[in-house]
C-alpha cells in the first residue's frame, strides 16, 4: 500500500517544532515497520525559511516540502496547496491519504478524491472562539468551522486522540470514527 501523509514535518532532521511534527516523526518510522506499507510519501507545506532540499528520499520514505502561499489561504480554502497536493498525489498514486489535523492537512487530504484518514489534533474552529469578537475573527471562525465540517464529512476515517475531541466531532463524522490515545 502506498500512503501519502500530509503533515507538518521537520525540515532539518532532529529539529522538531511542535506537537504535530513530534507525532509525525514518531508515526512515519512506525508505519514503515508494518507489512502493509510499501511506500510512504510525506507532504509538508512550510512557511518561512525553505528546507535545503524540496524532495528527500530515505529508503521507502519520500518527503516533499512545498512553500505555502500564506496569502488568502483561508478564503480560497487552500486552493494553491490543494493543487500542489493533487499534482503530487497524481505522481505517486497513493492508496490512502492521511491528513494530520483538521486544518489545512486534513482538509486537503479529504478533498483530493482518494480514500482518506484524518487524525484530530485539537479543534481549531472551537479554539478560535476564544479570540476577541470582531468582524475579522468572526469571518475566520466561520471559515474554519466550514472547513472542519467539510473535512469530517468527507473523511473515510477520523481518528480522535482524546475523549474530548471524540465527543465534540462525533456527530459531524460521516465515516468510521476511532479513538486512539497518543
What would a concise description of this structure say?
The chain has helices at residues 19-32, 79-92, 104-109, 124-127, 135-154, 163-169, and strands at 2-6, 39-46, 55-58, 61-67, 96-100, 116-120, 157-160, 176-179.
Give a quick set of tags describing it.
single chain, 182 residues, alpha/beta, 8 strands, 23% strand
Structural description of this entry:
The protein is an alpha/beta fold. It has helices at residues 19-32, 79-92, 104-109, 124-127, 135-154, 163-169, and strands spanning 2-6, 39-46, 55-58, 61-67, 96-100, 116-120, 157-160, 176-179. It has an eight-stranded mixed β-sheet with strand order 3-4-2-1-5-6-7-8, with helices on both faces. The longest helix is centred in the C-terminal third of the chain and has 20 residues, at 135-154. The chain is globular, with a radius of gyration of 16 Å. The mean pLDDT is 88.
